[in-house]
Design goal:
Helix content is about 75%, strand content about 0%. The two termini are about 25 Å apart.
Length: about 290
């Protein structure tokens, strides 16, 4: 469900970009909404005795870990992903970013032997990756290489890989709500240098156009706050490698939403690729005996 919702965000983000917002403004506004909602919820359950409210981590090293999570899964990821499309094609960007589970699996296997895939899981993740390639390319098997744009897209995939890797020690020591709240805070905090160069949130554009406001509220309340909380919980329950494989389903939901909202066509390549992704995800979810 989380990956399905995240797949729809490309469509809603595109509508906000067409409305006059920049990638940095969209990311910051959605994270502000998510952080304030999550902060209010944390304070509320702290007062009702459900869970004591805490502002900082247990040590400065853990606080640096939270900062790294906020940069890797927040500001740097979104900036590199969205900026890549200014220098390379959307196809290249989507293809490279959607293959982030391969990057995450490689990074995690270097540090955690217990998280390594068995043979069936490895076949499944490669099958899902092939499905992603077929879905994204959509029958047009010609890539227009752009060193800068493709490097930015790969940087986004690398950021998500490091986010998945860093969530393992964080999830072992802290609860999901605290981690997610810190990710939102440091995601916003690390955007300060960006706004020193490109000042302004351009709030007037959103406030004067209700459709844009609803899009932004969806991205902030659902795609950011609820989905990040759910995803960080999923990482703890399924393990980082197995959970990250579900990202392969992202382009499928993106195309479905683009078909429903933007009237884009669904082709036979989409059907074939989707079948490969679903079968691959099923195999990748097989536990070791």
């Amino acid at each position: 469900m989380v990956v399905a919702i995240w797949g729809s965000t490309f469509v809603f983000t595109k509508l906000l970009l067409l409305g006059g917002l920049t990638p940095g403004q969209i990311f910051t506004q959605r994270f502000i909404i998510a952080y304030l909602l999550l902060l209010g919820y944390s304070l509320l359950i702290g007062k009702t005795g459900g869970r004591p409210f805490r502002l900082f981590s247990d040590s400065w090293r853990d606080e640096l870990l939270m900062l790294a999570l906020g940069v890797a899964g927040g500001s740097l990821y979104f900036l590199t992903e969205n900026s890549a499309m200014n220098y390379t094609t959307t196809t290249n960007t989507s293809l490279i970013v959607s293959l982030s589970p391969l990057v995450a699996t490689f990074l995690i296997s270097l540090f955690y032997q217990s998280q390594r895939l068995n043979r069936v899981q490895s076949i499944g993740t490669l099958m899902a990756a092939l499905g992603v390639v077929i879905v994204v390319l959509n029958g047009h098997f010609v890539l227009h290489l752009s060193p800068l744009g493709d490097s930015l897209a790969f940087s986004a995939a690398l950021c998500w890989g490091f986010y998945s890797l860093l969530m393992i020690p964080a999830g072992q020591r802290y609860d999901t709500l605290f981690i997610t709240r810190k990710v939102f805070f440091y995601g916003m905090f690390s955007m300060i240098p960006y706004f020193m160069v490109y000042p302004g949130l351009n709030l007037s554009v959103v406030l004067h156009q209700p459709p844009l406001l609803w899009n932004l509220l969806f991205l902030g309340c659902v795609a950011s706050m609820l989905c990040f909380v759910a995803w960080n919980w999923v990482l703890k329950k399924l393990g980082a490698v197995v959970a990250t494989n579900y990202v392969y389903f992202n382009p499928v939901t993106t195309i479905l939403f683009a078909w429903a909202i933007l009237s884009e066509q669904i082709t036979i390549y989409f059907v074939i690729g989707t079948i490969l992704i679903l079968v691959g995800m099923y195999l990748a979810d097989k536990r070791k005996k």
